[in-house]
């Protein structure tokens, strides 16, 4: 007999998977439309077409941008509401616009210990990285952190119903950005993911709903969240970092529906990865 709790988790998983599917459909539509526009611009001005193609992820009118920003990017909140902001002002600087064509060469040592610190406007989030079981992911984060890719980027999504995560890692701040390359899924059979639940304190990769589509976006789980094991878990958040996440979560999100931009101004001022 299915309990109320099991039914709630099942509904939450189904909702999240539907959102992932809508996002992928919206992205395919946007890519097709952008390809047609870019081709037309090329006839008029080849240089202009090149510039347009480099920004194709954000091409289109405002309506299309909102559709393209579904999870792992966000559905754009239709009626945002203000809430108290417990965080400080961001450090001076602009988000990165760097892009790469391929995954960086492997440099991490799978037998070594790695840690990441996210210095945010809301406090420092300390994370122990799992290089042994997610080497490609940790290697990518080490590379991107050294390149300053995460610096000055907003954490663009907070969920407060069904699943409980803060999503970050997109310099665009829309949920549509990434580093230009994809990394493989890893560690999906982690024994901690029991009963299709990502436990509080997990950091995992976001994706488009399809295998092997991780880029730079990730989510921080501040409360046990029912999700299918399709998102690479690659580390655990420390006790101090969990306190910061609770402060962010307590401030709520802007849509009022449990899935929107955080009311807190969560900006990663600096991300660092260190080996010990």
TrEMBL record:
InterPro entries named in the record: Cyclophilin-like_dom_sf (IPR029000), Cyclophilin-type_PPIase_dom (IPR002130), Cyclophilin_A-like (IPR044666)
Q: Which GO terms describe its molecular function?
A: peptidyl-prolyl cis-trans isomerase activity
**Entry's transmembrane regions:** none
Q: Which UniProt key words apply to this protein?
A: Isomerase
Matching PROSITE patterns, A to Z?
CSA_PPIASE_2
**Basic and acidic residues bias locations:** 1-24
| A Pfam cross-reference name | Pro_isomerase
Q: PPIase cyclophilin-type domain: which residues?
A: 123-273
- Known SUPFAM superfamilies for this protein? Cyclophilin-like
Spell out the residue ranges making up region: Disordered. Answer: 1-33, 58-106
The source's domain of life comes to Bacteria
Q: What does this protein do?
A: PPIases accelerate the folding of proteins. It catalyzes the cis-trans isomerization of proline imidic peptide bonds in oligopeptides.
Protein name (record):
Peptidyl-prolyl cis-trans isomerase
């Amino acid at each position: 007999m299915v309990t109320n709790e099991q039914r709630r988790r099942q509904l939450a998983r189904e909702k999240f998977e539907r959102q992932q599917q809508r996002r992928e459909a919206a992205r395919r539509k946007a890519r097709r439309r952008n390809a047609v526009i870019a081709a037309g611009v090329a006839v008029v001005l080849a240089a202009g077409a090149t510039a347009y193609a480099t920004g194709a992820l954000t091409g289109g009118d405002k309506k299309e941008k909102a559709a393209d920003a579904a999870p792992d990017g966000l559905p754009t909140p239709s009626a945002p509401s203000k809430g108290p902001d417990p965080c400080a002002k961001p450090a001076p600087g602009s988000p990165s616009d760097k892009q790469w064509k391929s995954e960086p060469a492997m440099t991490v040592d799978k037998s070594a210990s790695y840690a990441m610190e996210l210095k945010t406007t809301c406090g420092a989030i300390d994370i122990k990285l799992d290089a042994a079981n997610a080497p490609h992911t940790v290697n990518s984060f080490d590379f991107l952190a050294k390149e300053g890719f995460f610096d000055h980027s907003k954490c663009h999504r907070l969920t407060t119903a069904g699943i409980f995560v803060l999503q970050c890692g997109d310099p665009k701040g829309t949920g549509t950005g990434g580093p230009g390359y994809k990394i493989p899924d890893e560690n999906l059979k982690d024994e901690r993911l029991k009963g299709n639940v990502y436990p509080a304190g997990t950091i995992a990769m976001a994706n488009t709903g399809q295998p092997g589509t991780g880029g730079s976006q990730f989510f921080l789980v501040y409360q046990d969240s029912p999700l299918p094991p399709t998102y690479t878990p690659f580390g655990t958040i420390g006790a101090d970092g969990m306190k910061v996440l609770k402060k962010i979560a307590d401030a709520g999100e802007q849509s009022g529906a449990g899935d929107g931009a955080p009311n807190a101004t969560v900006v990663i001022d600096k991300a660092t990865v260190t080996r010990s």
